[in-house]
Input
Amino acid sequence: MFTTPLVRALRRTYPDARIAYLVESDAAPIVERNPHLDEVIIAPRTRGARRIADDLRLARRLRRERFDLVLDLHGGPRSAWLTWASGATERIGYDIQGRAWMYTRVVSRPRELRARHSVQNQWDLLEAIPGWSGGPADETRDRIEMALDAAADARMGSRLAAAGVTAEDELIVMHVSAGNPFRRWPEPFFAETAAALAAGHSRRRLAFSSGPSDREAASRIAADARARLGAAAGRIIDLGEFDLQELRALIGRSRLFVGGDTGPLHIAASTVTPVVGIYGPTLAARSAPWRPASVPTLSIETPVADLPCRPCDQRACVHEDFRCLTQLLPGKVIAAAERALNS
Output
């Protein structure tokens, strides 16, 4: 998601260029309908000997394309090697030990976790393009994008209708999981927040989303919220599982999105739906939704002055209690959500 502003800026600056985007299959739905791209190239996500064969085949294809410029927005070993193997005249990437030699132009990337947005960090690669004239990063001019899939939107509309949700209802989406345990707000906090928001108005409906590994967590949170609501338990709805395009459609139809610093938070940033983000070990200054200031976006986090261990590398909690998350009590999130809903 954080690369899509760069795609827009490239198209704006080089309107006649042919722009291709190389991506692994899991993330392909984010860019496959991007209006500024001419082509999306899928990198198979395989392992072992199969990975080697697939990458060699992909490298030959990239070399045949005869690209003039390749930007390595990822910086990992695989993306660096494919950048080098493309044979492009200009290959721009970060100054990472053991990989910098694969690029023709190297951009400094400090190792410390700075309070500088990830989009701005990636913009440094654009500014390394010879003769770059696209200007600085601007969240209004070059915002995050994920094109709406009309078929996915229609499917989501049917699911909402089947769940009894109408246009008059105030739909709230809560993403209750994260691929990293360091970013998971406690389940009881989510349940308390959901119940409080649902109880706030008879027309409110709460839907939960989660990653594939956290379906059971979402079910537990939904059950807890329903128990807290009692007779109003029907305000918590179950839409089943959905893919990234359907999630984008659901958020676009919603009045509010609440979630931690995960991919769905940034999918939400591609819509005009108000967002409440919950930040534990990460900094909102680094990974808040990249969107115009006119769109309501509230970030809940413990000030670094009160918790100097923030941000951290998310490998081990020095306190062993994830206090950057457990100290963010539901009341703070509930109050922020109500402000966003009333904005």
Remarks:
- The chain has a mean pLDDT of 93.
